[in-house]
Fold Glutamate-1-semialdehyde 2,1-aminomutase.
Amino acid sequence: MNHDRSRELYDRALSVLAGGVNSSVRATRPYPFVIERGDGAHVIDADGNRYLDYVMGYGPLLYGHDAPEQVQSAIQRHASQGPMYGGPTEIEVDHAEFVARHVPSVEMLRFVNSGTEATVSAVRLARAYTGRDTIVVMQGGYHGAQESTLVEAGDDPSHTRPSSPGIPESFAEHTIAVPFNNEAAIREVFEERGDEIAAVLTEPILANYGIVMPVDGYHETLRGLCDDHGSLLIFDEVITGFRVGGLQCAQGKFGVTPDLTTFGKIIGGGFPVGAIGGPAEIVEHFTPSGDVFQSGTFSGHPVTMAAGNEYLRYAAEHDVYDHVNDLGDRLRSGIRDICEDQAPEYTVVGTDSMFKTVFTREAPGAFENHCGGGCRQRESCERFETCPKTGADTAAAATERWERVFWQEMKEQGIWLTANQFESQFVSDAHTEADIEETLEAYKEAL
Ligand SMILES: *Cc1c(COP(=O)(O)O)cnc(C)c1O
């Protein structure tokens, strides 16, 4: 593959964009290929190379790069009519009604412009509603580029530190980071500081650091502890929303009802979006019905609302989730079979249309009775003791090999995976069975 033009463009970018990119994960080594356009399940770069795309915008693109006709015409119509006004529009109401109708815990919403903005506002709302300051998050959980959750656990888990320069230590003092899936750890935190905890904020599945599924009963434990101590349970469904569990989202799949839910990615149909949803009794504390300040020039942008609403309507009317989940299953099972032959220590993870191969360093050779379609954290599985259960377990994998050797080899074979060991990959409605076969052949070569 020739990458001359991408190299030239990145050279220009390095002079005017910090690190040559606008989101850090895009700066793949030695330099990223610069994308010119999308085509179904593929992207084409500036040198004319074609890649089968499993990045899918890092989550939003449920249909790949050619949205259904009804989505495209709604986007065109709203873009040419406005595109935005600073006054309310009908399409915001339509979209909110759709989400509230399908997601179990949601009665009312506030739309914002990114997943980060959604988690910022959800944390503010939870703190105001409970009159408490402390937030509990999961180590390896991701909630966007915001001060309250960019933290890492110190050696003493009660002393959380900022994970980036520029965040005052005093922010991190209000955040506790516990290991995901560890019931004893979260019980201890609630025993010691339960009456200070405004909320537990977690992804239902760690999807930015794994993928890591919850062990049986973990979310029920969180739900119970929050109820017992008057804390809110916030599910960050920015990535799982309308991807895992179909239209009911991951909370429907797991049968656990959070107090607040944050959304992003798919609900914007490919445009910048975020949302906070929950019962009216909590969400109405946002201004102007309540006193928790929340506002945004572009919030509920008509083009975004139209794209997101048609996206979800199309999914409600067609068997989109059956298709993408079936392909996800085939892909995970196929990769599992390849691992059995070529890299038995690796763990295939994911669910629905999300997948990843974690380069775990140790696992029993046994594949019998192993979860074929991606690790489910089944205690009866012989690999249960060694499959990743926390962010730290994923970080202990062969992450350099994943990124510097495996990712590069897949790219050169025309398969575009997310840029490192940690981020989830996605199957879209545009992918076909033939694409899956091609991908498995590439895994066979690269693993
Ligand atoms: C992507 C993501 C975010 C951040 O959303 P942005 O739109 O990038 O700000 C927050 N939480 C989760 C779980 C995400 O996957």
Notes: The chain has a mean pLDDT of 96. The chain has two domains: 4-66+320-446, 69-317. The two ends are 20 Å apart (CA to CA).
